[in-house]
Amino acid sequence: CFLFYFQASPQRSRSPSPAGQDVLTLRALVSTKDAGVIIGKAGKNVADLRDQTGVKAGVSKVIPGVHERVLTISGSVESVAKAYALIISQLVESNPNTPPIPSSATAHTSIRLLISHNLMGTIIGRNGLKIKAIQDASGARMVASKDMLPQSTERVVDVQGSPEAIGRAIEEIGRCLLEDWERGLGTVLYHPGVGDERAGGRRAAHNSASSFSSRRSNGDSVIREPSPPPYNSTQLRTQNISIPSDMVGCIIGRGGTKITEIRRLSGSKISIAKAPHDDTGERMFTIVGTPEANEKALFLLYNQLESEKERRVGKEQQHQEEELQD
Questions:
Q1: Domain interval for residue 287
Q2: How many other C-beta atoms can be found within 10 angstroms of the C-beta atom of residue 159?
Q3: How far is Cα 188 from Cα 302, in angstroms, rounded to an integer?
Q4: Compositional bias of type Low complexity: which residue ranges (predicted)?
Q5: Which helix (H) or strand (E) holds 272?
Q6: What is the pLDDT of residues 45-55, one digit of tens each?
Q7: Phi and psi dihedrals of 294, rounded to 5?
Q8: What is the b/e burial string over 105-136, where b = at least 16 CB atoms within 10 angstroms of the residue's CB?
Q9: Each residue of 168-204: pLDDT tens digit?
Q10: What is the DSSP string of 25-88?
């Protein structure tokens, strides 16, 4: 399976730039075995990929006890889409379960793309029109998950089809994301293996998010220097996140106690829209603070969401057990 996230290049206006001017970074979650195929002997395959497409590509180190590694590819939308199509074809052909003379053009496979929760609306579109258009244009099938992945603010879109169809879908998705890049600011990335143990997982997720913010906290390639005063105006960032309306109450808490605590612990200012901002019924939370403070606020907000989801699942299970006993 593959996972995906997007990174906007620094200094971008809301409108899209000319083709090839935007930098897209796509990550994929691959098995250790597939990572070996992608890298090749002495790194030959990944080097060839860079030469053929002009992308930057690499695979993360092995994590003990985790049987997956992260593939990262950066470049223009077109070159990244081409690189993924080539990689998927390569993996299909290396699979021993395929016919002796596999045809990657007709082979059917799938990719799990990792999309920021705030950007899902951009991919799906009003009444699902955008995702349908991407499917029609690419020939791939797309299925979006409803829930965010553990310790992150990302959701999965499963893309199914031939390597070429998937490549076309990635190109279309990439263009959508770059056009609406600001919605993805502050995304907390999913890290495989993080969150298997609740307390340790949360600490690890927070540490990962903190180190990531120095590269891409707000899409503007912030480079941390010796810390100025916490609210130096040059360090302030504004981030917006959407929260399902039925979850807003659990974040605010009785008498506003929980949101007050999150503000105090993070050091960020957090304001909440009084009404939903679109047809999804979600309400906008606006976070203002330093990159570090905002990162902590996001972490606390989504931990609160995760806890509430677990509480509701437990309550539902208890209710079902009581009904069975009756």
A1: 237-321
A2: 25
A3: 9
A4: 206-216
A5: strand 269-272
A6: 999 999 999 99
A7: -65, -40
A8: eebebbbbbbbbbbbbbbbbeeeeebbeebbe
A9: 999 999 888 888 887 777 677 777 775 544 333 333 3
A10: EEEEEEEHHHHHHHH-GGGHHHHHHHHHH--EEEEPPP-TT--EEEEEEEE-HHHHHHHHHHHH
pTM equals 0.58
Return the percent helix, strand and coil in the chain, to nearest 5.
Answer: 50, 20, 30
Please indicate, yes or no, whether residues 29 and 178 belong to a single structural domain of this protein. yes
Per this entry, what is the length of the chain?
Answer: 326
Among candidates 130, 211, 201, which has minimal Cα distance to 172?
130
CA dihedral 152, 2, 82, 97 (to 10 degrees): 180
Domain-terminating residue out of 139, 167, 184: 184
Let me know whether 119 and 264 are in one domain: no
Domain boundary among 139, 158, 184: 184
Indicate whether 11 belongs to any domain: no
